[in-house]
Specification:
With about 375 residues, the chain is of the alpha+beta class. It has one domain: Beta Barrel (Hypothetical Protein Pfu-838710-001). Helix content is about 25%, strand content about 30%. The protein has helices spanning about 15-30, 70-80, 160-170, 175-180, 205, 265-285, 295-305, 310-315, 345-355, 360-370; strands spanning about 35-40, 45, 50-55, 55, 60-65, 85, 90-100, 110-115, 125-135, 145-150, 190-200, 210-225, 240-255, 330-335, 335-340. The strands form 3 sheets. Strands 1, 4, 5, 6, 7, 8, 9, 10, 11, 12 and 13 form an 11-stranded antiparallel beta sheet that branches. A two-stranded antiparallel sheet has the order 2-3. A two-stranded antiparallel sheet has the order 14-15. The longest helix has 22 residues, at about 265-285. The protein is globular and about 70 Å long. The two termini are about 30 Å apart.
Length: about 375
């Protein structure tokens, strides 16, 4: 895969990965004739009361299967004038994601990691690394707040609000700060295989000399039927749902070196850029889109709820994210054989690799979305 997608050789090391991605992106921007342009991350959004909010400019569509998105890279470039896919920006992630606050919570709270097999192990046996906690606004509306921290293994069961404060400082809103203190309890799981890439969007008429960086991804995912990923008699499986999602998010922008871009100007460009991608995608896939106003985390919660799992059951189980990093859970026994301990890490593996619901490889997704545009 490294020959066609050089970033994959750095997939486990974020520092090197994102450094190499920046080099690739900078070179590509120069190839578009944008010389002496510098990169800037998405800035804080300054609200009417002066608050500096960390905003996630992002949209997505949900479809039945990742195969629906055959050739999507070529489709996007041909349909969206001014959109240029960044060569060699392909990367991929295996994301076990847990909802760790309920549907009645004021914000989404989720635990996420990346998933890798060890060199000496079977490829289907993976272990979580690069652990993170994230807090987001509810729903899929534009300009949701998003706050994320990386968490050491040993701190998973501790109050991590200090890590949020350390990262965001005085920009951390009081309600987010308070919500961060609440303990993490696993409500349900999603296993995601993500094929990601970047694009540059130019529109001099509407955005002037600003070049918007857009991160796109195709996700194939499974949602577990129970919070502990056990077998559900109700549906005859431990996997409740399998779908896919195409997502696009503003990652930052380029502007001429030395030029100061005003707050309102950059946010107008950001909103224009995300809408410029959204309209063609919604038109192209209107017959395939599954109506959905929920974020991924909310989809976990509503799926669990629809299968009859109650808040009281979740509180009784009191599952912690750290338990899913272990092959043996001494305090949890199998329902059909109380003499045997539960292997929650093994169940997490089955969320990705169960034969009847096996998620495609990262290579397969990338190959599919890079195919020529299907004939109509």
């Amino acid at each position: 895969m490294a020959k066609h997608r050089p970033l994959f050789q750095y997939i486990k090391n974020h520092d090197v990965l994102f450094t190499e991605l920046a080099i690739i992106r900078n070179s590509f921007v120069e190839s578009l004739g944008l010389n002496d342009f510098t990169y800037h991350k998405t800035p804080k959004f300054i609200s009417a009361d002066g608050s500096r909010l960390t905003i996630e400019p992002e949209r997505s569509i949900v479809v039945e299967s990742y195969q629906t998105l055959l050739g999507v890279k070529n489709i996007l470039e041909s349909e969206i004038q001014g959109l240029y896919i960044v060569n060699n920006s392909d990367i991929g992630f295996r994301y076990p994601t847990a909802a760790i606050a309920g549907l009645d919570a004021p914000f989404i709270k989720r635990f996420r990691s990346e998933y890798f097999h060890e060199d000496s192990e079977d490829r289907n046996i993976c272990r979580p690394i690069n652990l993170s906690y994230g807090i987001k606004s509810r729903g899929k509306a534009d300009n949701r707040q998003e706050y994320e921290i990386w968490v050491p293994d040993e701190a998973l069961n501790q109050d991590t609000s200090a890590l949020f404060i350390d990262k965001y400082g005085e920009d951390l809103p009081d309600d987010i700060r308070q919500f961060a203190t609440q303990p993490a309890v696993v409500h349900g799981w999603m296993g995601v295989k993500r094929a990601a890439f970047e694009a540059i969007y130019l529109d001099k008429k509407n955005m002037g000399d600003i070049a918007i960086v857009i991160g796109l991804s195709v996700d194939a995912y499974n949602i577990g039927a129970n919070p502990d990923l056990s077998y559900s008699e109700q549906i005859g499986s431990s996997v409740a749902l399998q779908n896919a999602e195409l997502e696009w998010e503003i990652m930052g922008y380029y502007a001429p070196q030395g030029v100061q871009v005003e707050h309102d100007q950059i946010w107008q460009a950001i909103n224009h850029g995300i809408e410029a991608v959204s309209q063609p995608i919604n038109s192209l896939y209107q017959k395939q889109i599954l109506p959905c106003n929920e974020s991924k985390t909310e989809r976990i919660l509503s799926t669990i709820q629809q299968l009859g799992v109650t808040t009281e059951q979740i509180e009784h189980w009191d599952l912690k994210p750290s338990e899913f990093l272990q092959t043996v859970s001494p305090n949890r026994q199998k329902a059909h054989d109380p003499s045997r301990s539960v292997n929650l890490l093994g169940r997490l593996n089955r969320l990705f690799y169960q034969e009847n619901y096996k998620l495609p490889s990262l290579s397969d997704i990338h190959e599919l979305i890079a195919q020529p545009r299907p004939k109509r």
